[in-house]
Specification:
single chain; alpha/beta; TIM Barrel; 8-stranded parallel β-barrel; 3-stranded mixed sheet; 17 helices; galactosylceramidase activity; EC 3.2.1.21; EC 3.2.1.45
Length: about 525
């Protein structure tokens, strides 16, 4: 049931994005190549071979996009810094890019001038390509020190103004999709070992960066360092079945616990160690494919988060499913479970993203119980549409936001320590291996138009009302928000249709007319030659 009420005073409302997905300018002003530049430039890796080379042109539109943030009335903006934009090879001693540093300085200053708090992620997947080629990226322990150098540079250059730092955004996807399935950059398929090894190095790196901040910068800058972990909720198909309950527990521990458990409790989840260890032994391996932390490392890693960033999009039903002994092992077969969905769940966008708001409250309560009720910022939550035609009247996004934000309000009443919410995302943007086919934005972008204009969807107006009311005051008011949002989007639709027509006419003027003109001249010359020959 829906709960009417408001959030505590001082609750932070925001919106987010990431560097590679929005900035573009992939090789401009001294920026080095990232693994995503290399990955998208290979044919067949991304839907329609699309790239983020220009993306939303965010690099050139900072002022415009900050106006959108003001229009939304958000308290904070979560964005990421592109490592190769400020350190082209990823190695501090080799080269710094002052233009890149200036770009982020200008962005941070503009946000603060407009009373918007910057929340900054140091890593949203765009590793410098040089580090991938030279060392194998996150497969190599040397990344710990290279990343720590980069993080310290960011603390030095921006830490006087940035007080909320995220070391890694969704490291689960970095490890699993980058080094196991190969769906994401760098596109490696190191089945059974690659993801675990990458995650191991990422966790060690996170801890090193937290200690660097703690020892060197905290007393002066008074900021916070956390990590952003994205996890679905796993619900047992039959809550009365112990095997289903165990399978659902494994689902969460292999997803969220993989990273959160070492940081909050000092080691990988026991269930993860047992399952991967047993499967490794069945393969005849001498040691587990899941690496181990030494006692010293466990103590070093435990407690290295001032807050926990949580990304959450959807839920799965989970059932026990035993995978027979396989020579080819994988993260997925290690878990011995199957994921199911309820066909009645709304799925407005891609097949993976079902709207199941109640799963969010359960996930937040799980975190409270499992990790000692840490300070939580919701760092990513939103829904995409996967349609070819433009849809500015996004009532499904309104329903999704209303449902999921309401579950946070219920979780707060359960005693969960949530201090802020970040809707994902500000703009339609490049969605990794899906290209531009999925749209998460509050603002629609016409990517066919060279100016990449932004148009507000109905959800902009609705989210703005939630922020202004700091929640859901009463049924009548909340109902009115919906109708007002729908009215707004109808007007914007007319504007977009007009702009599209003008763009189309400009294309006709710039391309078709010169072509026709050239063709006329060519035909005239041919006819003239023909005429002169006949008369001679």
């Amino acid at each position: 049931s829906f709960y009417y009420g408001t959030f505590p005073a001082g609750f932070l409302w925001g919106v987010g994005s990431s560097a590679y997905q929005t900035e573009g300018a992939w090789d401009k002003d001294g920026k080095g190549p990232s693994i995503w530049d290399a990955f998208t430039h290979k044919k067949g890796e991304v839907f329609r071979n699309e790239t983020g080379d220009s993306a939303c042109d965010g690099y050139y539109k900072v002022k415009d996009d900050i106006q959108l943030l003001k229009e939304l009335k958000v308290n904070h903006y979560l964005f990421s810094i592109s490592w190769p934009r400020i350190m082209p090879t990823g190695i501090k001693s080799e080269q710094l890019n002052e233009k890149g540093i200036q770009f982020y300085n200008d962005t941070i200053n503009s946000l603060l001038e407009n009373n918007i708090i910057p929340i900054v992620s140091l890593y949203h997947w765009d590793l410098p390509q040089v580090l991938q080629e030279k060392y194998g990226g996150w497969q190599n322990i040397s990344m710990v020190n290279y990343f720590n150098d980069y993080a310290n540079l960011c603390f030095e250059k921006f830490g006087d103004r940035v007080k909320h730092w995220i070391t890694f955004s969704n490291p689960w996807a970095v490890a699993e999709k980058g080094y196991e399935t190969g769906e994401h950059a760098p596109g490696l398929k190191l089945g059974g070992c690659g993801a675990y090894k990458a995650a191991h190095h990422i966790i060690k790196t996170h801890a090193k960066v937290w200690h660097s901040y703690n020892n060197t910068w905290r007393s002066e800058q008074q900021g916070m360092v956390g990590i952003s972990l994205t996890s679905d909720w796993g619900e047992p198909v039959d809550p009365h079945s112990q095997t289903d309950r165990d399978a659902a527990e494994r689902y969460i521990q292999f997803h969220l616990g993989w990273f959160a458990n070492p940081i909050y409790r000092g080691d990988y989840p026991e269930i993860m160690k047992n399952y991967v260890g047993r499967k490794s032994a069945q393969q005849g391996l001498g040691i587990s494919r899941l690496p181990t932390f030494s006692v010293q490392e466990k103590n070093y890693i435990k407690g290295t988060s001032d807050f926990l960033g949580i990304g959450h999009f959807t839920t799965r039903y989970v059932i026990q499913k035993s995978f027979p002994f396989l020579q080819v092992s994988s993260y997925y077969t290690d878990r011995d479970l199957a994921e199911l969905v309820d066909p009645k769940w709304p799925a407005p966008g891609p097949k993976w993203l079902y709207s199941v708001p109640w799963g969010f409250r359960r996930l937040l309560n799980f975190i409270k119980t499992q990790y000692g009720n840490p300070l939580i910022y919701v760092t990513e939550n939103g829904v995409s549409e996967k349609v070819q035609c433009t849809q500015l009247c996004d009532e499904w996004r309104i329903e999704y936001l209303k449902g999921y934000i309401n579950e946070i309000l219920k979780a707060l009443n359960d005693g969960v320590n949530v201090k802020g919410y970040t809707a994902w995302s500000l703009l339609d943007k490049f969605e990794w291996n899906k290209g531009f086919s999925e749209r998460f934005g509050f603002y629609h972008i016409d990517f066919k138009n060279r100016n990449k204009p932004r148009y507000p969807k109905a959800s902009v107006d609705y989210y703005k009302k939630i922020i202004s009311a700091n929640g859901f005051p009463n049924p009548r008011e909340v109902r009115n928000w919906y109708w007002k949002a729908m009215d707004t989007c109808s007007t914007t639709h007319h504007l977009l249709a007009t702009d599209s027509l003008i763009t189309h006419m400009e294309t006709v003027t710039e391309i078709v007319l010169p072509t026709v003109f050239t063709l006329c001249i060519f035909i005239s010359i041919v006819l003239l030659i023909f005429y002169l020959r006949n008369h001679s």
